[in-house]
Amino acid sequence: MSETYNFLFKFLVIGSAGTGKSCILHQFIENKFKEDSNHTIGVEFGSKVVNVGGKSVKLQIWDTAGQERFRSVTRSYYRGAAGALLVYDITSRETYNALTNWLTDARTLASPNIVIVLVGNKKDLEQEREVTFLEASRFAQENELLFLETSALTGENVEETFLKCARSILTKIESGELDPERMGSGIQYGDASLRRLNRQNTSTKRPDCQC
Ligand SMILES: Nc1nc2c(ncn2[C@@H]2O[C@H](COP(=O)(O)OP(=O)(O)OP(=O)(O)O)[C@@H](O)[C@H]2O)c(=O)[nH]1
């Protein structure tokens, strides 16, 4: 796909170690399951241009390490993120119980307006499920999060998760709730939008205007 886009959004992928964050990102970008995924050291990066409601949006995605020993490094990447995927593993209650801490970090260190999608990963392991869909969706509702269950293994809902987050940010931009020009919004205009804005500015000038 062409690198011309209307917007660029900075995204974070956060959550406890082993929940499948790197596999989700890999599935989204490469359309395949990442076999032999190792613990992330610090932070990894990926990007992809997607189409959201007729607009092309470049997602700049930072996949953070879930292990506690990298927390000080990963925290430094939170600033100015427009969206986050907060991932837990549906077969591990421990990763679900840790969500409140991750949420506090995201809301205090990133932008208070950050759009967060709660992601219950490993949906393919239904037999080993420890967290029900219903309780997680209640948690999401109480904490104003979007919510989806995914499988990085089969690819189910992986792309939808990123699109859902991007769609929500775009809606907030269009309604004026989010201002892309505010410092630290995690949003930038891409070439396509800038060209349109320039055209609009030029066409609104009076013919005799010297500016
Ligand atoms: N069955 C199944 N296994 C998965 C899925 N996603 C990830 N895994 C497995 O879960 C383990 C951890 O996946 P990673 O993507 O490395 O986890 P992570 O959250 O990035 O871990 P950290 O980098 O340590 O924070 C790996 O063994 C993956 O193969 C999934 O959707 N289904």
From TrEMBL:
GO terms for cellular component: early endosome; endosome membrane. One of its GO terms (biological process) is protein transport. Its cofactor is Mg(2+). It is found in: Early endosome; Endosome membrane. One of its GO terms (molecular function) is GTP binding. Its EC number is 3.6.5.2. It comes from the Eukaryota. SUPFAM superfamilies: P-loop containing nucleoside triphosphate hydrolases. It catalyses: GTP + H2O = GDP + phosphate + H(+). Keywords: Endosome, GTP-binding, Hydrolase, Lipoprotein, Magnesium, Membrane, Metal-binding, Methylation, Nucleotide-binding, Prenylation, Protein transport, Transport. It is an enzyme of class 3 (hydrolase). This is small monomeric GTPase.
